[in-house]
Amino acid sequence: MLRSSVDARNLPILYADDSIVVVDKPSGLLVHRSPIDRHETRFAVQMLRDQLGRRVFPVHRLDKGTSGALAFALDRAAARAMAEAFAGREIAKTYLAVVRGWPEPSGTIDHPLVAVRDEYAPTAESAARPASTRYRRLATVELPHRVDRYPTSRYALVELDPEGGRRHQLRRHLAHISHPIIGDSTYGKGRHNRLFAELFGVHRLLLACTRLEFAHPVTGRRIAVATGPGEEFERLAGRLGWPPG
To answer: CATH code at 189?
Structure first.
């Protein structure tokens, strides 16, 4: 089992062995350098490399604003196996998000997506590819504030299980069904984002990867890693009256 010193610059380690490491990435941190965010100087790859004192290989990505479980391999063979598992939809990912409105209690969003330009890919593709996201509504709240045409504003906590991993898939899928994620400056609604900033001091994207489940790339043993959505996310949930966990 790998061990590392703990200080303010370290990433919390959720799981580690001789082949893979899963860390808890905070919101606002890029996974690696990007031609779009040239001003950034801290990256998860660099931080974990310095923390462990060895080279690490990211095997999937989380958007800059998304927090939660992020997996790395510690050698090229494990990286290749994990990357193939992610591409082959063999790794289960679970997310939590706060969205505008009250979606149906559960459902599946089947909506093809065209690749987009972001911090990881400076060019975009033109052909839409299949993408599917299952969702489940966990909690709701109605705030006495007019944002749109109604005198109150509704929001919900949802659990999301994407099949595949198209770029910005969850953010784009929730916007597609008119329930954008709060804090999303690209696909969301600025008026709702500003309300959460003014009322609750929340300035982050309210999306977190809270669970990864996969077969170990060397042993084949099933690994499940879970984490919370982050302190700011959890404080907000408490203020909205949603139960812990």
So the answer is: 3.30.2350.10
Q: 103 falls in which pLDDT band (50, 70, 90)?
A: very high
For residues 14 and 16, give the distance between their C-alpha atoms in angstroms, rounded to a whole number.
7
Beta strands per DSSP E along the chain: 13-16, 20-25, 57-58, 67-73, 92-100, 106-110, 113-114, 128-129, 132-143, 153-163, 207-215, 222-226
Residue 76 has pLDDT above 90, yes or no: yes
Residues carrying an active site annotation: 63
Residue 8: inside a domain, yes or no?
no
Question: Average pLDDT of the chain?
Answer: 90
- The distance from CA 74 to its chain's CA centroid, rounded to whole angstroms, is 22
Please return the burial class of 93, using the count of CB atoms within 10 Å of its CB with bins 0-12, 13-18 and 19+. Answer: buried
